[in-house]
Design brief:
single chain; 23 strands; alpha/beta; nine-stranded antiparallel β-sheet; 15 helices
C-alpha cells in the first residue's frame, strides 16, 4: 500500500511539473529527485543467522552431544575464519566415493535424473521471513560439497501453516572439487523469489571431497518488502501433472492416410509405430520419470508404452520429494503393479503424504517389493509400518535411516518381514526389546545398521543375539554404540565370522588391553572395512594382528589413537595390498612427515591426516 501511494504521489508531481511554468517544473523535479529516497519506501536488507535446525539427514556427532552435530549450525559462527577440524562445526556422516564402494551399499536406482546430485541435507529456520538476496554458508574445512540451496514458502514458526507448501531452488550446481581445504565464505548468486521465506534447505554431495566437510554457520540476507523485479509468477513444473486424459491423446495412426490407390502415405512419424514393441520399450526406458509422464499425453501408442508396468519395476521418487503428494502416488498407482524397488526417501514431510495415500499405494503396489527406501520420511507412523509388514511379504531391504520421529513401538512390526537381508535403522528410536524380536525372526539378515540408536540399553545382548541368529551377517554398523563391551564383541566375532564390514567408531567402552581387537582380527579374516574411530587404546599389537590375519582389508579408521606408530602402519600397508583408505587423523605418534613418507611408498592408499589451526 505504501508503495502504491508513493508511486501515485510521484505521478501527481510529474503532472504538476508538466502543467506549470518551466521554473515550477524544475523546482518540482528537483523536489522529486531529492525526496524520492525518502518518499519511496526503502526496503532495508536484513542479515540473520539460522535460529533453529529443523531437520537433517545425517551427522557425524552423537545424539546426546553437540560435537560435530548439525545443531551447531544454529546461531552465530563459532569457528570462521579459522580452518581445520573443529568439534563446534556441523559435519555430515560420510565423505568421498569410497563410501559407496562398500558391500553394504545398495544398488543405485535407474532413471535418477543426471541433475540430481544430493546425498545429504539440512533444513534451517530463520527468525524473519524475507525475500532472499543472498545465502552465505561458512565452510571451515574441505569446502565444495554444497550442490543445492532451496527456499520454502512455509513459515515454520507460524500457527497457521498454508495448505500449499512450495519449495523453490535458489541455486544448484554439480559437485565441485575444491583444491584447498581452507575455510571460505560460500555465497552463490541466487534467483529471486515471488514469496518471502525463513526456511532454507542446503543439500550436499561429498563424493569428491578428500575428507569430511565442516560447516560453521548459515546466514540469510534479504528484504522484508518484495523487490520490484521479482513481481512475476514463477513457472512451476509439478510431478502431480500425470493425468492421462483420453481427450488429449491423438490417434497413433493419424499420421498415416490412405491414398487413392490404397497405399499408405507417411505423414511424418517416421514409421515409429512399426518398430518392435521391445525396442520402443528400450527407448523410453532412458527417460526420467517426469519425461515419461509427459510422453503419455502425446498419443495412444506412446501412452501404452509409458504406462507399461515393466517401465516401473524400479521407481525412485527421492529426486522429486518437493513435489510429491498423495495425488502423485495415486496417478502412479496403476502403473506400478510389478514394482520391485521403491525409493521414497526424503518425501512426504509437512503433510505432503498421508497414511491414507501411502497405505493405498502400498496395498496396490507392494506385493512384489523387495527393496523399500524410506530415509528421513517423517510422515511414517506405526500404522504405516504395519501396512508395510502386511503388504510386502517378500521385502528384503528396508531403510528407515533418520526416521527419528517414529514411536519405538512401531519397530516391532519389522519382525514380520522374515526375508529381510538389509536393514538400516540409523538414528532411529528403536528399543532393545523390538531389536531382539527382529533378530529372532529375521535370521537371513546380511547387512544391519544400528548407528546412533541411543535407546538400545545393552548392546552386548544385541551382539549375542546376532551371533546366535544371524550367522550370515556381512556388515554391521554400531557407530556410537556406547554400551558394547569386550564380552559382546567377542561373542559377535565368534558367531558372525563372515563379517566383511564392522563399524565400531566411538564405541568408547572397548579397551584394547583386554585383547578384544586382536581376537577380532583372528576371527574375522574376511574383513574389508573396520572403523575403530576415536578409540584411544588401539595399539601397535592390534594393527600387526590385522596385518597378519586380514589381507583383504580395504578401509581402516583408527582416528585418535595415541599408541600406534609408523612401524606397525608400514607392516599393515605391506600386508594389505587392497587397502584404499587409512585414517590416522589425530594419531599422536603419526605426524605429517610420517604420513608424507607413507604416501610416497604406498601411492594407491588414501592416507588421511586431519588438522586444526
Amino acid at each position: 500500500m505504501l508503495t502504491l501511494l508513493s508511486m501515485f504521489y510521484y505521478i501527481c508531481l510529474r503532472r504538476r511539473s508538466r502543467s506549470g511554468t518551466r521554473g515550477e517544473a524544475l523546482t518540482s523535479r528537483r523536489a522529486v529527485e531529492s525526496g524520492q529516497r525518502a518518499t519511496l519506501p526503502i526496503s532495508v536488507e536484513v542479515e540473520q543467522y539460522a535460529k533453529e535446525v529443523l531437520d537433517f539427514s545425517s551427522h557425524y556427532g552423537s545424539e546426546n552431544s553437540m560435537s560435530y552435530t548439525m545443531w551447531n549450525l544454529a546461531g552465530m559462527p563459532n569457528v570462521y575464519p579459522s580452518s581445520g577440524d573443529f568439534t563446534q562445526t556441523a559435519v555430515f556422516r560420510a565423505y568421498g566415493a569410497w563410501w559407496e564402494q562398500c558391500a553394504s551399499t545398495p544398488l543405485p536406482f535407474r532413471r535418477t535424473p543426471k541433475a540430481f546430485h544430493s546425498q545429504d541435507y539440512i533444513e534451517l529456520a530463520f527468525e524473519e521471513p524475507v525475500y532472499p538476496t543472498a545465502v552465505e554458508v561458512l565452510e571451515t574445512y574441505h569446502p565444495g560439497a554444497i550442490v543445492q540451496i532451496m527456499a520454502c514458502s512455509l513459515n515454520p514458526f507460524s500457527q497457521n501453516p498454508p495448505t500449499d507448501v512450495r519449495w523453490e531452488v535458489l541455486w544448484a550446481e554439480e559437485p565441485t572439487k575444491v583444491l584447498t581445504p581452507q575455510a571460505r565464505q560460500f555465497s552463490p548468486s541466487i534467483k529471486q523469489l515471488s514469496f518471502p521465506t525463513n526456511l532454507i534447505r542446503v543439500e550436499v554431495n561429498s563424493s569428491l571431497l578428500k575428507y569430511y566437510t565442516e560447516l560453521d554457520a548459515v546466514a540469510l540476507r534479504g528484504q522484508k518488502e518484495r523487490p520490484i523485479l521479482s513481481r512475476y509468477k514463477m513457472p512451476r513444473i509439478d510431478i502431480c501433472d500425470l493425468s492421462d486424459s483420453d481427450e488429449e491423446l491423438s490417434d497413433p495412426g493419424a499420421s498415416f492416410r490412405q491414398a487413392g490407390d490404397g497405399k499408405h502415405i507417411n505423414l511424418g512419424n517416421g514409421y515409429f509405430d512399426k518398430l518392435p514393441y521391445e525396442l520402443i520399450q528400450l527407448i523410453v526406458s532412458h527417460l526420467t520419470l517426469p519425461d515419461l509422464c509427459r510422453l503419455t499425453q502425446t498419443c495412444k501408442l506412446l501412452r501404452q508404452h509409458c504406462c507399461d508396468p515393466l517401465q516401473y519395476i524400479q521407481l525412485s521418487l527421492q529426486p522429486y520429494w518437493a513435489r510429491l503428494s498423495d495425488t502423485s502416488l495415486g496417478h502412479l498407482q496403476g502403473r506400478c503393479t510389478l514394482l520391485q524397488r521403491l525409493n521414497l526417501s526424503w518425501t512426504g514431510n509437512r503433510g505432503a503424504l498421508t497414511l491414507t495415500g501411502f497405505s493405498s499405494f502400498m496395498k496396490a503396489c507392494g506385493g512384489s517389493l523387495v527393496c523399500l527406501e524410506l530415509s528421513c520420511c517423517h510422515f511414517l507412523s506405526e500404522p504405516c509400518l504395519e501396512v508395510i509388514s502386511q503388504t510386502c511379504p517378500g521385502l528384503q531391504e528396508l531403510n528407515l535411516s533418520s526416521c527419528d520421529r517414529l514411536h519405538p513401538q512401531a519397530f516391532t512390526h519389522i519382525s514380520k518381514l522374515t526375508r529381510l537381508r538389509r536393514l538400516v535403522l540409523y538414528r532411529t528410536r528403536i528399543e532393545q526389546t523390538a531389536m531382539l524380536r527382529i533378530l529372532t525372526f529375521c535370521i537371513e539378515l546380511r547387512h544391519l545398521n544400528l548407528g546412533s540408536c541411543v535407546m538400545i540399553e545393552d548392546y552386548d545382548v544385541v551382539a549375542s543375539m546376532l551371533a546366535v541368529c544371524c550367522r550370515s551377517l556381512r556388515s554391521l554398523d554400531l557407530w556410537r554404540c556406547r554400551s558394547l563391551s569386550e564380552r559382546g564383541l567377542a561373542e559377535l566375532a565368534a558367531g558372525c565370522r563372515l563379517l566383511e564390514e564392522l563399524d565400531l567408531g566411538w564405541c568408547s567402552t572397548l579397551q584394547s588391553s583386554s585383547g578384544c581387537f586382536q581376537h577380532l582380527a583372528r576371527n574375522l579374516q574376511c574383513l574389508r572395512k573396520l572403523f575403530l574411530t576415536a578409540n584411544r587404546t588401539v595399539c601397535d599389537s592390534d594393527i600387526e594382528e590385522l596385518a597378519a590375519n586380514c589381507p583383504a582389508l580395504q578401509h581402516l579408521d583408527i582416528l585418535g589413537t595415541r599408541m600406534v606408530n609408523s612401524s606397525s602402519l608400514r607392516k599393515l600397508l605391506q600386508a594389505c595390498p587392497k587397502l584404499l583408505l587409512l585414517d590416522v587423523s589425530f594419531c599422536a605418534q603419526v605426524d605429517a612427515r610420517i604420513v608424507q613418507e607413507l604416501c610416497g611408498l604406498f601411492p594407491n592408499v588414501a592416507i588421511k591426516k586431519s588438522f586444526t589451526q
